[in-house]
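Re: the request from the purification team.
They wanted to know what the chain is likely to look like in 3D before they choose a buffer screen. I agreed to run a prediction and write the result into the notebook, where they can find it.
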Amino acid sequence: MQKNLILTTASGLTASQLRPFVFSFQQFQKEADLVIFTNRLNAETRRYLSESAQLIDFKHLSIRMRHPQCFLWPLWKRGFPLLKTEHSRRQLGRFVFNLASLRFLLYLEYLENLTEKPAWVFLTDSRDAIFQDDLFARIEGPGLYCFGEGKQRTIAGCYSNSAMLKDCAGEQALKEYGQREPSCAGTILGDYESMLNYLQTTVRITMSVERMKMVSSVDQGVHNYITHKELIPNTNFVDNDAGPIGTMGSVAYNHIRESPEHLILQSDGRPYAFLHQQDRHKQIVENHPVYKQIRNL
């Protein structure tokens, strides 16, 4: 039986920051492997993570969350087409991509080199995410699954999403897709072939984006461009209300559904399998059973 795979990145984080994600993974994802790409972690954090995950170290230049190599992006962008091999282009990408974009290149090369292919692959953030159920049991069919952030705003109506889409593909892309619901680049799910196609497309487009800034990222602009242009066959756009993944960052707390046990519910009354950006609501951190169990450890 093929196992499922979860890929995430942890850079400069502590064990306490990552504990809700890892603790909930241990509870709900018994049939999945967790791989964490790590950078600038202390020994205590590495020991804690290694109990549940495979750790893969990578190097990346950043100074106070700034990526100085991106200052020369116009030069790097012109350089990619001049390199003759995909390997040399990726090596340049490893050096010049900011962290949010680099992670997709790391994931791609990891998947390409696997001898045993997973059935499903989930790409996720780690610091602000928890499981509530078995995510992979909620999948309805093959393809790529991209998850909305909520219908309460559009790409054009959100400063960061509109800026990232313009940085990716220019003003014309914003005109075409600006009225769509933003999709979150921090939670992407797909079968192995669909995810491989997605990551190859992501890396290729990232090498030619209009801008890559030292501070803010372009990754979600690339993701929304791919998602709404439907560049990957069998792409499924899942509304934030419909599950199985709920992104809470732009949802007002009085619009969030909770069970008597303080699990967060999707529109059909079932708990979301996975929550993202839930820590932006102090009430969830105070009352959710994952956080309560961690405080009682």
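For the purification team: DSSP finds eleven helices and twelve strands in the chain.
Please add any questions underneath this entry.
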